[in-house]
Amino acid sequence: MPKVAVIGAGAAGCFCAAALRKQAPNLPVTVFEAGSKPLAKVAITGGGRCNLTNSFEGIRQLSQAYPRGERVMKRALQVFSEKDTIRWFTQRGVSCVLQPDHCWFPRSQDAMDIVHCLLEAMSGADIRLNTPVTSVQPGLVNGEAFDYVVVTTGGAPKGLPFLDGLGLAIMPPVPSLFTFTVPDPALRSLMGLVVEATIGLTGTAFKADGPLLITDWGLSGPAALKLSSYAARQLAEDGYKGTLWINWLRTNEDEIRRQLQETASGNPQKLVSTTHLLPSRLWSHLLAKAGLRPDIRWAEVGSKGLNRLVAVLSADTYPLSGKSRFRDEFVTCGGVALSNLNLSTLESKQHPGLYFAGEVLDIDAITGGFNLQAAWSTGYVCAQSILKSL
Fold first, then answer.
1. What is the value of pTM for the model shown?
2. How far apart are CA 346 and CA 353, in angstroms?
3. What SS3 class is residue 278?
4. Given phi > 0 = left and psi -120 to 50 = alpha, else beta, which region is 84?
C-alpha cells in the first residue's frame, strides 16, 4: 500500500489529510508537525472565531483577493470553492453564518469547532507532533520512505532550508498583512476613529479601499491591511519607509470640490468647523492641516483655502516609519515559486510525487477568510491529485 507524508499540521495539511482519509480510508497518511499542537494557527485566526472563508461578493478579479497566486487559485477554486467549504463543514456538523462583510464564520463564533471538526475528519492519520522535518528528498522525509509527500509548512519567514538540494525556485518570503507605524502625533491623537477611506503608497499604483482605523501607533483596519498585502514586496524593498496618502472621502478631486462649493454657497455664514463632512475630531484635524482657522466661515475660505482643503481631503499624506504585526495572524508573501509546479495538480515538475499546498506556496491573500480558503482549496487539490494517481 502506498504511503503519504504531509509535512505541516496546519489548515492545508490537515485538510489534505482529511480528504485523503475520507476517500481512501486504508491509505496510510502520516502528518509531521514541528509544534506541540495541530491547527494552532487556525485556533487563533479571526480573533479566535475562525473566518473560514469569504463569499467573494464584490471581488471582480481574483487578483483583488490574491495579489500573488491568482492563476493557481482560479484553478483550485474550480475544484474546491468557497461554497464547497461551507458545504463540507456543514455536513460535518459545523453550522456556519455569513456576516455583512462577506466573511463566513462558524455560528458558534468558536474556532475550536473548526479544529475539532478537522481532527475528527482526519481520524486514522498518524499525527507526529514535536517532529520537525529537516530533510526532504524524492521519496524520503527525514530518511523515511514515502510514495507521496505533500509540503504544507505555511509561511516561512526564515526560509525553507529542508527543501535545499531539490533545485526548487523559491521566492524570498516577506511579511504581509500588517499595520502601519505613522510617527504623526496629531494623527495618533485621533486613535479609535474608523473612517471609510482609500489609502495608497505614494510613488506606486498600490491602493486599497475600506474601513481605516486610526490607532495609537498609526493606521490599521481592513484598508491598511489590504494595502500591506498588495504592496508587501515593495514595502519590504523600501525597508517599510515611505509616504502614505489617504483620500478621506473616497472620490475624485472634482467631486470633492463640487461638494465643498455646494456646501459653501448654501451656508456662507456657517462655521466650516461645524460642517462635519467627516467625524468631528478628524474634520478639525484636516482643517488645521489645510491651514484653516477654527472660526473661519465658508464665505471667508476663498479659492486658495478651498484648494488646500480639497488637496487634504483627496490626498492627505503621512510618513511611514515601519510596520506592526496584525494580532497573531502572521502571513508571508513568497515561498515555493509556482513555476516549479503543474498548476492543475500542484505536483512538482522536477520531482513526481512531491506536492505543495497552502501558504508555503507563493500564494497569499488579503484579510477576510481568503487565506484559509486557499489552504482548503490547494490542500484538496493535492489530495485529489494523489488519489487519481493511485
1. 0.92
2. 10
3. coil
4. alpha
Q: How far apart are CA 256 and CA 194, in angstroms?
A: 20
Instruction: Assess contact for 137 and 149: CB atoms under 8 A.
Output: no
Alpha-helix runs per DSSP H in 164-316: 185-188, 221-230, 232-237, 253-266, 280-289, 298-315
Amino acid at residue number 134 = T
* CA diameter of the chain: 85
Indicate the pairing of strand 53-54 with strand 316-320. unpaired
The CA-CA-CA angle for residues 368, 82, 24, to 5°, reads 125
Per-residue pLDDT of 41-73, as tens digits, reads 999 998 899 999 999 999 999 999 999 999 999
For cell 505541516, what's the residue? 8
Going from the C-alpha of 39 to that of each of 19, 60, 115, 185, the distances in angstroms are: 16, 31, 6, 40
Sheet containing 242-247, strands listed edge to edge, beginning at the edge strand earlier in sequence: 316-320, 242-247, 194-201, 207-214, 218-220, 178-181, 322-325
The CA distance from 263 to 270, in Å, is: 9
* Nearest Cα residue to 286 out of 261, 259, 318, 263: 318
Q: CB within 8 A of 201, min separation 6: which ones?
A: 207, 227, 231, 234, 235, 242, 243, 244, 245, 320
pLDDT at 138: 86
What integer pLDDT is reported at residue 211 of this predicted model? 97
